[in-house]
Fold this protein.
Amino acid sequence: MRHLTIATLLILGSALLASNGADAVGPPTPDRALDMYAKPATLVDIGNGRHLNLRCTGDGTPTVLLESGAIADSMTWSKVQPLVAHSTRVCSYDRAGYGFSDAGPLPRNVDAAVTDQHALASAAHLAEPMILVGHSLGSNIVRRYAQRFPSEVSGLVLVDPPPQHIAEFSADWVKTDDAMRAAGLAFYRACEKGAQNGQLDAPPPALKACLRGPDPAYSKALNAAIHKNKSRPAFWQTVISVTEANGALFAEPVSATEKYDALPLIVLTADAAYAEVPRADQKTLEAAQDATHTRIVATSTRGKRIHVAGASHDVQIDHPDAVASAVAKMMKQVASTQAAKRSFP
């Protein structure tokens, strides 16, 4: 099996070419519950003529805001959001350039995502302080949000944060990873050019891998919407910018200055995140994953780590109940903290 880059690992499952459809004998029946993702929910004006697509369900407080991974949109939370909605108000959204959201100014790095997220929470009048849930790169985004706007966050649930500073465990892996990221970026740029030229509807052979064909687990309307959204030049421009930014982001270790004091924090570790990776790479990535997650937990005096057995990196798809359970635990912690504050003003 070939070496996999960290950029590739971050988009496996819920990004460019992946499917939520289960393996089955014969074509699966389209899941009509997913048809809600074939059209925008609420397009929130965040200023400067830009809109982000926001999906909120359920009632109650605290508000739970779900942050997707590197190249995923709000549909990645399709299994988690209904579970959380039984208990409180929960929202997911499409980051700039993805799904039904407008593009954002480049570069699309973590700080740009946090600025948009904050503008969205303000414009949509999301009740604060919020519980923020971030998957993969989304965990880096919500961590940065909590650093910049601590009074607006009551708890963090981090779903399999990506390993950082892998050079600590294998310099050779990083060299190969950098080379393959460069090759990936060249491919994305070709796709972006194809999108600019309107070629992705009937792509030439060199561009056929830019987008997958219709997923039999999705309806015709949903497949058409996904194809249309990912045929936009803005989508590919965003993918390129995010991939470029991630190279620098994940090269660094968790900062020694990253602290959340007593903010409740849960890290979910996917125990089978690298099961499909060659054994030598698997050991490197698992060591980096363990170090990263341990360091993140230590940023809070109320940090806790939960291992999810048998889960791939896409825990929210493989084991949505584990994510919902972590959110429920966080809600109890937040309620306890708020009760203590009322008792001792």
The mean pLDDT is 92. The radius of gyration is 19 Å.
